[in-house]
Description:
Blueprint: H1 4-10, H2 14-37, H3 43-57, H4 70-73, H5 82-109, H6 118-137, H7 144-148, H8 155-169
Amino acid sequence: DVSVGALYLHFKTKEDILANLTARFIVSNIELITEFISGTTEGAARLQKLLEYFRQMNADPILAIFPTMPLCTFNKFNTIDSATLDAVLGAFDKLISLTEAIFAAGRDDGTLQFDDNPKILAETLIRSVMALFQEYYTPDSDLFFRLNSHRIYNFSDIFSVFSAVFLKGVLIRK
Length: 174
């Protein structure tokens, strides 16, 4: 058991605690992603596996809390310790680097065809996936997507369409 006082000796705020958990969550998922895509060498196959991993993530109940956190809504950075914030941003950088390497491998082996910089594609993909998770799990979102589509479609359906559109955009050659 840990007392509240002991917890706040290590962390300044609730947001700091959640940010630390976010960094750990991202790092552990990077390790799982790396394991999930291992065994495939073609860039296109690795990209497909990465997108499949993200689609399957919606089964993780922990994922549902992250989009509601102040860190994910970018409105309380000043309440997060700078070292913790650096850890979160470093974890995101690692995820983007892993994704960038997938795009570069696909470009180099000819299974992905695109004109953009692999880093820009990686950042776009990761930001888009985060936006989908955030939109799907944010309880008080009032967008049309949130109000109407969930009556018919689940996250997996929506993410499958997103994946298909994204994969078409990088022109996977089979």
